[in-house]
What does this fold into?
Amino acid sequence: MGFLSLALACASASGQTPEEAAASFDNNFLHNVKGQPGVDLSVFAFSNRVLPGTRTVLLRLNRQPLGTRDIEFVAQEGKEDAQPCFTVTALEELGVNIKAFAPLLSMDPTDCTAPLAAIPQTSIAYDHEKNILDLSIPQAALDRKARGLVSADLWDSGKTALWSSYRIGHNQMSVSGGGSNSHSTFASFRNGLNLGEWRVRNNGSFYQSNGESTWDWTDVYAERGIVPLRSWLRLGASSTPGNIFSSSRFRGLQMQSDESMLPDSQRGYAPVVRGIANGNAKVTVRQNGYVVYTTFVPAGPFVIDDLYSTPGGGDLQVEIEELGGRVTRFSQPFSALPLMMREGILSYNFVAGEHRSRFDSERPMMSQFTMAYGLPGGLTGYGGAMVAEGSYQAGALGMALNMETLGAVSSDITGSRSRDDRGKSISGIAARIQYAKSFPGSGTDFTLAGYRYNSAGFRSLDDAVRDRSGPDSDLLRGLSRVNEYQLSLSQRIGTRASVSFNYFGVSYRNAPSTSTFAQLGVSSSIGRVGYSLTYGVNRSPWSRRESTVMFTMNIPLGGSHNGSYAIGRSSGQGTSQDATLSGALTDDYALTYALQAGVTSGSGEGARGYGALGYAGPTGIANVSHAYSKRSSNTNLDVSGAILLDGKGVLLGQSLGETAIIVEAPGASGVEVDSFPGVRTNGDGRALIPYANAYRENRVSLTPNFDDADTTLEHNVQTVVPTRGAIVVARFDTEIGRAMLVVLRNDAGMELPFGAAVFDKDNEQKGIVGPVGRVWLTGLAGANRFTVRWGNDQENQCAFDIEVPAGKSQPEEKSKELTCV
It folds into this structure.
């Protein structure tokens, strides 16, 4: 027995390779009582033998992870291991250009053994220990598609559900020295109805203070995605985008392109890299010394148009390494601005409806259209038009250009025409220019400079509506902006430190001075301790200059605990110091705390303190805090959560984001969901995951170890791809029933042979007999009958029964000896 265990352990540790010879097992080493039949051990001839069946594996295509997939492994003649099954349809979903291979077009759609052989230079390898399936297909055989693309066929619109996310807070303030105390209650609600592709939303709030209360229900709208156009449609309350025209609130119809439907490698701006490979080659793209892209290309011209976007840009170093060893390198500088689009990508927005503002007397009908399109050569064209009741018209036109070594620049001009409350025609323009440049060699990561000029007659739609509201608008009109300035700079110093500078200034008509904000910051670290020093200056047109200097230090204390210290001084506020201790009290970060003590000198405020405790549970989040100072004390209680109603009943959870996931693991209660503190399944085996990424693969993982002896998770990882705003279901198969270690003997009292297979009444294999007749069985409930086979003849099989009492109140048996006859 010891020798056999050692032999099996050594075989398992070695791992199977294509050249591995079959192992030979001598049944004489098995603990067989005289007269006991032997068993065929050829199933163990190779270490990590892959048996036929469905396996949930991590699939990688050309070394790029595609996520977890259920792959069927089938037995093939001449192969010791079962082989992965890929039909023509499956290969097409992976991006294979089926039309380029004539044999694939005529194959049986259900055949999963021949398709891979029809593609030259294709290989497949399965790592049993790591559960990784590597599929290698030449790039020439693949359709050109962006990295990270998730097929629209996998998008899940979710289920019908009615839900409400809420947050309720109560505050009690006590003022020392005979001041008046106060208390207030605030509640906010975000309600939703998911019906097929449609999402109906509504926001509401309630506020009560010292006996007076108000309700406010706003932003009622319905929306849905339009997949063929990669767009979404909204009906109801919304706001226009502010990238070309100033943003305005309105009620009506809005339709715009949805960038979230694009893969990550097509979002934002990145240049197109073009090159020529003289032979089969590996192409590597680096930025700031880091590898950002790797691919294999055949001989000839190649195009890389799916680089991930990086803020501000940065030079790209491209390396072409051919199979013969020849290496070619070149650099491609680029910079980016927010309005820039990738070549061939269109972004648009159309709205039509009733303008909404704080001036209730004026709600003109309006319509607006804007668009931006990526042109060849790093050029982006953008513009738009707007019309509204009251003789308002506006138009905008602009361009952005990646000038490579010279940086990126954008310039646009917007013109408007409107009438005031006296019918007088007003017209004007607004001009804007922006510039960005990255200097990788000097460590300057990103620079943005911007300037905007507004003439006296220029009006946004909100301005024009205000003009028509009457004489009271004259004062506000005098405060319209004339010039706007913006500058942002970041500089690396060595490997740890960085310096940043930000400036924003606005000048107004008839205002005494310019409004400015400037901030200079330095950050670095010593070991694990990080620190920063910040100096800021702020001035409004009607107030004196105010300055603030602040030094902060963050100290990891081990585990999930952190300490910090801050000291700062503000104009007229004295010097303040604060020390903070925070962290988690549980391993799953469900229970958190924060303690703070501080003092301010020179202002009469004296010492102060703060303490907070937070709990994230499966049905919501609760926070309680108390703060005190020389002048007052403040106690706050805050709870938040969500309630959802669907076809299976009511489900409670934490407050929902835009998109959410329902976990369904029937019978598995108290199972924790990884990466979501406090989220675990209820008594029905359901849980609410509050956040998910739309149009992306979301990996849902359950902790396999939970306290329920009567339920077994058949797998603990699922992948879902929800659409925007969807409530999707991640279903986990479970086996309900008792788990038990059974020792099996025949009617002569001898243990059943090692390696015999155990089948249930449906002829589904449930286990394999181990040493001394032991087998581990799960899902036992009530009366259970099993058949054991160790050969093809009738005398090489037997059957046995297990009776498991119903109800968890019965004593739990963990093992049992049975006779198989």
In short: Confidence is low (pLDDT under 50) at residues 1-23. The helical segments are 2-14, 88-93, 102-105, 461-467, 473-477.
